[in-house]
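Student: Send me a single protein entry containing the residue sequence and its fold in token form, directly below this note:

Tutor:
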Amino acid sequence: MSVKLPTLKEMIEAGIHFGHKRERSYPKAKKYIFGLRDGIYIIDLEKTSELLESALSFLTKTASEGKTILFVGTKKQAKKSVEESAKKTGMPYMTERWLGGTLTNFETVRRSIKHLSELEDKKNTEEYKTYTKHERAKLEEEVAKLHRVFDGIIKMEKMPDVVFVFDTAKEDNAVKEAIKKGIPIVGICDTNANPELVDYPIVANDEALKSVELIMNLVTAAVMEGKKEK
């Protein structure tokens, strides 16, 4: 892997080492914790660096094999960066909300996307011209709603090969569905998450914007490297 990992100094400057308060942390995250400061867990950045290297290498390999990675991240601090990363790498994404059944009921999701396509087509028909103002507004509203939910996965015609999850505690339903379908997970886990649920956990601060941006830049670079090797 030729993606340059951040130095410990760079990770500290981005605030990657700040976890959650002790009472909010998950017991199985303790092996990745360096210590406690003012009631807040400090993440062991040497271990995070090792986890990053493993996860990024896996993402590069996945992309080099022409496989699909579904990016998931709906929290306010991360959604923009997650969407930008997915778009840059040409991968599907979900950043508005996790739609239950996206993985476990994939055919139903595809039918909903087909319905969106049919509604779009309807706007170009002679029939549409006969609609009242109210009927047109109602159809436009439905189309807009469906776009918000499905825009990131419209071109995802088959199940993803890997799911990248930003904040596995928040996106627990996405994690559960991926586990149920046997899809490998790369996940950003803060100290309030169970890293053992994830195939490639990256234990890091998932709240601070600098931390989010640093991690997503690395993820983008890793996937882009893999696509070049394809």
In short: The first helix runs from residue 8 to 13. The radius of gyration is 20 Å. The mean pLDDT is 93. The chain has eight helices and eight strands.
